[in-house]
Design goal:
The chain is mainly α. The chain has six helices and no strands. Helix 2 packs antiparallel against helix 3, helix 2 runs parallel beside helix 6 and helix 4 runs antiparallel to helix 5.
Length: 163
């Protein structure tokens, strides 16, 4: 007979709890970002989370990240599904190739985050080219968003490797 201390805890429940917490926190943050325009959209940090979860095959958290991305697109009246496709394609074509060539490097975060924004805005530009005008302004606020998110991504990576 097993004692209570020898029972293995249910890791699926923990993953569902983490994924739900991520989804709720991101939804609240996105709503706050609509009110306070100086808050970055955190797409780059979500991509860093996506890279980690897809590398470790944590599918529950990956689906939560995809739900966050779709919520972001619906909240900003963009075409739903483009951002998850950008994440998958960038991870598959760029990140995995860089990992094969250059090993794991924390400072590639400064490359990945602007790349995500560039590919996303390029995909939106291509879609809007056939049916409207592009309403995104790529000014100095965009550069500050990328810088803030890259710094947060590097801090996250440093904490992840120390713990």
């Amino acid at each position: 007979m097993q004692t209570f201390s020898n029972l293995r805890r249910n890791s699926t429940f923990k993953e569902i709890l983490k994924a739900s917490l991520l989804l709720v926190c991101f939804c609240v943050y996105t709503c706050l970002g609509d009110i306070y325009l100086w808050l970055p959209p955190m797409l780059g940090l979500l991509f860093v989370f996506y890279m980690q979860t897809s590398k470790t095959n944590r599918w529950i958290v990956t689906f939560s990240i995809v739900a966050c991305l779709i919520f972001f697109e619906f909240d900003h009246n963009k075409h739903a599904g483009i951002l998850p496709l950008v994440f998958v394609i960038t991870n598959w074509l760029v990140v995995k190739k860089f990992r094969l060539l250059f090993e794991e490097n924390v400072f590639f975060i400064f490359f990945y985050i602007p790349l995500i924004y560039f590919i996303y805005f390029f995909a939106l530009y291509l879609l809007e080219m056939f049916g409207g005008t592009l309403s995104s302004n790529l000014g100095s606020i965009f550069i500050s968003y990328v810088f803030y998110e890259a710094c947060l991504g590097i801090i996250y990576e440093k904490i992840k490797y120390k713990i």
